[in-house]
# Entry
Amino acid sequence: MVKTAKRSKTQLQQISDVAWLVRQGNNRLGILNKNNQEHFFYINGKETIEFDEETQVASHFGNVNLFKEQNTDPMSKDETFFIKGHVIDYSTPYPVDEGHPDFNPNVPLYAKTAESDVYYAAGWYCINFDKGWKHAYCPKYSTLLNYGYTGPFKTQIECKQSLKSLNRLQKTK
# Structure
């Protein structure tokens, strides 16, 4: 007799008003976003799929109760958080929004406490230090402004590729 593993049901875990992590058990499959026209976009790293309505999303994942059964529990401390699509590993970030005086539309900023005036930039960056370009993950915003930077990059690999080019360019000057 051959035993087959029971496949976990696909579930949604809400991460914002218009975005959900698509999960199957402990596995993250991708991100589901809803736009202003009430359309849904599923992104999984390999492809982007567009849906016109909730029923199409539920049908795609084989769970007719997908939106009814969504996980609204707060994310546990070992979860990954995103700010404007950039991963951060801090458990309780406070994003800097458009109304804030330090808001920069090109740099996704967050603070570690609600009262803090020290901001961090989500994602990977190449920073132009005196001795050359170095990479950094979620650096302080003040460091980016003091030394100059390129980024943000979504992955360390993208950052390091850019870093090689920047250092090569600096050596030829």
Q: What stands out?
A: Residues 92-172 form one domain. The helical segments are 54-61, 141-147, 156-172. The radius of gyration is 20 Å.
